[in-house]
Amino acid sequence: MTSRYAVLPCNGLDKSVGCITREIALGLVEKSETDLICPVMFRVSDARYTKIAADKPLLVLDGCATRCASKLAAEKGLKVAKKITVTEEAKNRKVAVGKSLKLGDSDLRLAEAVVEELLKEEKPKESPAGQDFSTIVYDYETYKKDKFIFRVPRSGFYFNENDCWVIVSGNRARVGVADFVQQSLSDIMFFTPPAVGAEIEQFGELGSIESGKAVFEVISPVSGVVTAVNDELISAPELLNENPYEKGWIAELELTDFDEDKELLLDFEGYFKVLKRKVDEFHVK
Amino acid sequence: MSDEVKIGVVSCSGEDCLGGAISRLATLKMLNEIRPDETVTICLPLFLAGGEEERGFAQSFPTLAVDGCNKLCAKRATEKYSGKVSDAFDVSDLIGKETAASKPLSTRYLTQEHQEMVNKVAKEIRIRFEDILMDYYKNAAQRIKASGKTPNCGCNCGK
Amino acid sequence: MSSMSNKVKVIPCSGMGKVQGLVARETALKVISELCPNDAETVCLAYLVTGDDEAKDKIEGASCLTLDGCAKLCAAKNVELAGGILKKKFRVVDIFREHKGVKPGSATMLTEEGWQLVDELAEKVKKNVVELVREV
User: Fold this and answer.
1) Per DSSP, what are the bridge partners of residue A166?
2) What pLDDT digit, counting tens, does each position of C20-60 carry?
3) How far apart are CA A73 and CA A80, in angstroms?
4) Which H or E run contains A199?
5) Structural domain boundaries in chain B
6) Among A32, A38, A91, C110, which residue carries the largest CB count within 10 Å?
7) Alpha-carbon distances, residue A112 vs A89, B41, C20, C31 (angstroms)
């Protein structure tokens, strides 16, 4: 997971904040795949940087409210993805910027903190997890038994008879366990994820979840390669109990052949019948 | 007999006294041993900590409240947040007020005497449970009769 | 007249159907009766649910430690609703997770392993009680 910015810093060599800007730009170049645009060179000869500025999201770094880099970007008609002004960053972090052009420890720490935050912010955009599934609309049908309510999403989801679900977006799939599983297991305490990169066959094992009552092997409804796992479940497996279809998703896969896999899966109607039968037969305490 | 009917048995939290602990253990005996397929229970604090699903408890099930002392928390909390109970009783009426009010009990130190108290209270729960169940079926039969529909016994006897 | 006790309130959930609830209760009982009898006391959650004035007085503004058996967090939520100052929320499930494979027992009876979990959790709670008492 790396950043892919093109960064345009200001050239404030006569101010400490300008020097911090340079430090931030260098930090980004060092720690990620960021390309650096020299503002002086860009002003006199933009050919070298035009492609970089077009291919990558442009990050503009200004030292102070004069905003020389922002003005340059505007002059050149560049589309700016993100702007940082060092004086504002210092104010927000309640850090006093030094006066000297030779950066002190706190100036360097400020630069480091800004770099880290930029790289952290970049991660969710880069990560394939969640990217394809952000538009899911969850609409649930419920089946009530005693004081228990079992939910099943009405559309978009497919299920196997092992109570595991899959939802597909393009060639990617997200997999999890149905409400019936989390109700049966009660408080889930452990999640053993599958390995990222593992090749999984349809109905193969895709990790496991464990409560005080039992261990449940997650049986994959689809075949494919694991591209992401829900790391949050490792520290907070109770998310599976809270919402097994949304926050409690288990893994994402790049599909091998969903058309073939689908023939052996149940849609909502088919699974709802199975669920009702299972619930009626099983005394859930 | 339909296996769809469940009776709710709600115990007080029982942290404060022996009566509360006996009340809880007797309720659990009902839930786990005596009538496991027909009993449901709920933790009292869920009326506040939970949602509509939890607060609907006494509307979904005829409910028996079992309290450890005369503060009657199970009965009062159920009626305040959920709905009228079908029956309620105070364990101290069975085991004695002084005994019920004695200090809380850890299950680590459960004696034969305590176990006998649990059995006595569980027996009372069972008796009242069966009364509630009978009332439920009587009312159901009356509703069917009033509706004029033929009952399901298959012989048209009208009973 | 409100009961002005400076004792730390150690409040377990009322968990009926799960062994975690029993562990929560037994831990609280051990802390208030054996480990910190002079510094800690409990308040029955049912009193908070019914709005008992005496219980509310005890809790309001008091330093509270809660022990919850499951993710519903009944003790923590009810204490906060009653105006208690929640200093730490203990979740029994966390200690279970530290001892994978342990068979603690049932909602009515703990095994030897279950009692070990109680003892371990009680020591953690005791540490917090001692710290809170020092703060006062």
Assistant:
1) A158, A175
2) 999 999 999 999 999 999 999 999 999 998 888 999 999 99
3) 7
4) strand A199-200
5) 7-147
6) C110
7) 12, 55, 44, 46
Q: What is the pLDDT of residues B28-72, one digit of tens each?
A: 999 999 999 899 998 888 888 887 778 888 888 899 999 999 999
Q: Which residue blocks in A127-267 are alpha helix, DSSP H?
A: 179-185, 232-235, 238-242, 258-262
Number of alpha carbons in the 13 Å side-chain half-sphere of residue C122: 21
Give the burial class of A203: count Cβ atoms within 10 A of its Cβ; 0-12 exposed, 13-18 middle, 19 or more buried: middle
**Do the Cβ atoms of B40 and A147 come within 8 Å?**
yes
Q: Which residues contact A7 (CB under 8 A, 6 or more apart)?
A: A25, A28, A29, A34, A35, A36, A37, A58, A59, A60, A61
Q: What is the pLDDT of residues A20-59, one digit of tens each?
A: 999 999 999 998 889 999 999 888 877 788 888 878 888 9
pLDDT tens per residue across span A72-123: 888 887 878 888 899 988 988 888 998 888 999 999 999 999 999 888 764 4
Non-local (6+) Cβ contacts of A51 within 8 A are none
Helix H or strand E segment including C9: strand C8-12
Residues of C in contact with A210 (CB under 8 A): 100
CB-based contact A151:A142 (threshold 8 Å): yes
In DSSP terms, which residues pair with B87 in a beta bridge? B64
What number of other Cβ atoms are within 10 A of residue A100's Cβ? 10
Q: What is the pTM of this model?
A: 0.68
CB pairs under 8 A between B and C: 111
Give Cα separations from C58 to A120, B72, C52, C76, C82 (angstroms). Answer: 45, 20, 10, 15, 10
Give the tens place of pLDDT for each residue, B101-146: 998 889 999 999 999 999 999 999 999 999 999 998 888 888 888 8
Neighbours of C89 (CB within 10 A): 17
Residue A186 C-alpha, separation from nearest chain B C-alpha, in angstroms: 15
Pick the CATH number of B7-147 from 3.40.50, 2.60.40, 1.10.20, 3.30.420: 3.40.50
Structure tokens at B16: 């404060």
State percent of chain A over pLDDT 90. Answer: 58
- Higher-pLDDT residue of C100 and A134 is C100
Residue A52: predicted pLDDT: 83
Q: How many CB atoms lie within 10 A of CB A127?
A: 13
Task: Name the pLDDT band for A128 (thresholds 50, 70, 90).
Answer: very low
Own/partner long-range contacts of A242-247 (Cβ < 8 Å, ≥24 apart): A242/C71, A244/A176, A244/A177, A244/A178, A244/A179, A244/A181, A244/A182, A245/A138, A245/A140, A245/A151, A245/A153, A245/A157, A245/A165, A245/A176, A245/A178, A245/A179, A246/A138
Q: Would you state the pLDDT for residue A129?
A: 47
List chains adjacent to chain B, taking adjacency as at least 3 C-beta pairs closer than 8 Å.
A, C
- Which one of B31, B49, B103 has the shortest CB-CB distance to C77? B49
Interface with chain B: mutation pick from A143, A146, A147, highest number of B CBs within 10 Å: A147
Helices (H), chain A: 16-31, 39-44, 47-55, 68-75, 86-92, 105-126, 179-185, 232-235, 238-242, 258-262, 268-281
